[in-house]
Specification:
This protein has about 170 residues and is mainly α. Helix content is about 75%, strand content about 0%. The longest helix has 27 residues. The radius of gyration is 18 Å and the shape is elongated.
């Protein structure tokens, strides 16, 4: 799905690329739709856990915000598989049925809530000045996720992209 999109990826192609039989794939997933749902669910869990683990190492809201942005970007771009997976997460989740999409939206909201909490903490500690913490958090998440698919156009190393976007995020709330 990361290479061919949801519509372009067949169960037969997915099974072949995973080096399993079609029957084995259907044993674990009833449909391509079910596979997408499971993938999205797990991908968001992994990213949220990674962010929570990394920000726990920092006390200050500026460092935490930079860690969030860096983790989102790194998670999405650190290798070719991550890039393809990030594409699927960002573009294909709308293919889910409303109840399944709602479950994914809960996880997307959890990320937004986490960022908003860091922004509010920064406001309370006089490090940030925004009067729109929720929308600032949404802009920061969108900013970090926007690197998917355009990282080559930016023409910088991954570390440089992360540093640049961390500065943008801090400037947004300052």
């Amino acid at each position: 799905m990361g290479e061919d999109g949801y519509e372009g990826a067949s169960i037969r192609d997915i099974a072949a690329r995973a080096h399993v039989s079609v029957a084995a794939l259907y044993y674990h997933f009833e449909s391509k739709h079910d596979l997408l749902r499971e993938f999205l669910d797990e991908a968001l869990d992994v990213t949220l856990a990674r962010i929570e683990r990394r920000i726990a190492r920092h006390d200050g809201p500026v460092d935490q915000l930079e860690e969030i942005v860096g983790t989102i970007i790194w998670s999405n771009l650190h290798d070719d598989f991550a890039r393809r997976a990030a594409y699927v997460v960002s573009s294909e989740y709308t293919r889910l049925n409303p109840p399944e999409r709602a479950a994914i939206e809960v996880k997307r909201k959890a990320l937004l809530d986490l960022v908003e909490g860091v922004v509010r903490d920064g406001i309370a500690k006089k490090k940030f000045k925004t009067d729109e913490p929720r929308e600032a958090a949404r802009a920061i998440v969108t900013l970090a996720q926007s690197t998917v698919g355009v990282e080559r156009e930016i023409d910088r190393s991954l570390d440089d992209i992360i540093e640049l976007y961390q500065r943008f995020a801090v400037a947004l709330v300052s």
